[in-house]
Batch of 3 targets.
Target 1
Amino acid sequence: MKVAALCFLAAATFWVLNALNKDDYNTVVDYPIAIVFDQTEFMPVEELPTRMKIEINGNGWDLLRKYFKINESPFLIEINNPSTKDYILTSELRRTLSENITPSVLVSMVTDTVKFNVDKVVTRKIKIELDTTSTTLAQNFRLGSAMSIDPRLIDITGPTSVLQELDGVLKVDLGEDKINKDFNKIIPLVLPSGYADFLTLQDESVQVKFEVYQMLEGNKRLKIKTLNFPKNVNLAQEPANIIMSYFIDERKVTELSKYEFEAVLNYNNRDKEDSTIFVEVRPKPKFLEKIKFEPEVLRLKYDKP
């Protein structure tokens, strides 16, 4: 059995070697290609094709080497202005490719078109904006000034189609939340995911500055002042005073002492349907916010004539 196996192996080897030495074989191969252009002026925005299918005829050894891509140099396809055309017909390459694959003979171009996506590289100005969707101030804190960004415009270089996707804006994340003090930091510029391979920023960072202030919570006891009440109308239950709660800009606290506040009940502003009246405060400076009263609504009592 061993002798028979060795004989069979020797015969098979001899047959294969003999077959590979013959000519006039046809096969389809994925032939290596390389698209060549000025890479300082243009940039691919999609992966370039590296193979195209061709049918070739030739010696068995040569076809075997081409089929398994052994020591095969890619066929160079030179394009002068790849941004104006995104394909090339393989029929245009037939003559030069035929010379490149010798001693094999080119039978046909199985792939009829080689497609690519290459854009011209340009430099544009882009505006830096703050991405506040993930950045919040601490509770009861507000912006006290406009957000300053320096520089506001920067140069960015890359292929035109990728730059158009940014729409002229690059958003910057402050990297903080619950901010409760004036902000003044150098923020690194980071390109969105998927853009870093295509775009180059002239500046690596920007300086962001802004002021914040706190809204302080307070309350006051107010004396009641009635207006336009008829003689036969009174409050069903009159409190000794009304508590006013509010929020005030911390920068305006000293101004609060200049005001004498009153809880005003104006009969002309009553709700006629349920005989209630809402509390108003006078004066009402603009720096007071979220004003509430306790009680907020009082019921009217009508005496019989």
Target 2
Amino acid sequence: MGFAGLAVLVLPGDRPGGAPLGWVLLIVAASISWAAGSFYSRRTPLPKEALASTGWQMLFGGAGMVAVGTLAGEVPDVRVDSFSADSLLAFGYLIVFGSLLAFTAYVWLLRNAPISTVATYAFVNPVIAIFLGWAILNEKITTTVVAGAAAIVLSVAAVVRRESAPPPEDEVAYAGAVRRASNRG
């Protein structure tokens, strides 16, 4: 249902046209890679501290991006003297709030919450972006946007509700039987 809500948000006419298929597929591959990394992070030996794990991931990710940018010949295009105060403030904001705080919280959640609950962030972000676009940039909210956002919010609520609900009686009985059997063995 959440995916359907996202699809409604990007209906033709509500997105920039002319996006090359190769780059669109690269974005899809990146999303799959992010999901796989999130799923396997519990099975991978990472630093126990979420901030240390975040630091290492950002260090290696940043080094990889610098290497790719260098190989692509982008270094001569960087002109430090033309950075504006606004762009530096925005960059600082993204470092502190978008990277250090948000990503550290995400890494901590991956270790301490069900993956299905953690993954709901990807559906909530577009809804927050819609609200911010309306509040800050006076963007128009159409009926289609409201329908897509409602489907997203309802799907997230369903996942969170399901994850926080107590397990059915038969699962509790089975888990108790397994514990008793393992204590005897």
Target 3
Amino acid sequence: MKFCNFESRLTIETRHMGFVNLELDLLRTFVAAVETSSFARAADLVGRTPSAISLQIDRLEELCGQPLFRREGRRFLLTTTGEKLLVHARRLLAVNDETVDDLQLGKHKEVIRLGMGEDIATGCLPDVLKQFSLHRPEAYVSVRVGTSARLVSAVESGELDLAIAYGNQDRPSALHACDQPMCWIGASHERLRRKDSAVRLVLFAPPCAFRTLALEALDRALLKWEVVFESPNLLGQWAAVKAGLGVSVRLFSSVPPDLEVLGPKDGLPPLGTIPVTVHLARRISPEVHDFRELLIPALSALAEPTNPGCEC
């Protein structure tokens, strides 16, 4: 590597433009040379020959107008200018790499498109995502929350890679994951039904597997019922139940802390379990396969009630 007496030798083009452009390729080579303490190792890192590395450093020193390295015995150490440049170079490269990573997400990152109900999204999903991020840090997960019927249709049309649904076990894409216990859910101050009065229900609009199973259970028990409130989401459903409008049916594992689990002691029939199914697109990536392998055990873990005395 040759050293010269630099006196702000800028190129003709740079002088004409009125400012200096520090090329990112030169800065990347410079940082690699510093971090590896070797032009030869830096050459391997950036995919160039050692002679090309030397030329790039010469070019960068020409643009800076100052030497970046000084010799001490057999070693090359940074000059004061080199130390200052290293700080700026790392920051510029970090901004560049972050920008490229963001703009070229679809090209370089595997995006997993998931669909699930609100119970799952707020239940076991956070733990599964944490495990998956450790196993596949390069992958991104996009989650759509919706009703089971719409999510399964989205998988079959290719809009989603994987969906978790309630029921729908007869669909071609279905893989049975587990059966989860259901229960009646109501407010503590709500007296459900007087003699010969109908059970007031707060439910999703059809099609809804919970709705179907709840109405079938009431019909088997020869109980009158009336749907008094329909909500497209759980937030509205829980608000109506808390207000005492009626009772709802959902997973035992997703009962809000300020509502109560109800059952035969409250004049309501047993509900049993609901099938939880996982639906996969026809072609899945290795990342989707790995996510499924983490998801199914997490779903199965939710199938065990935490309250053995529940009379759902």
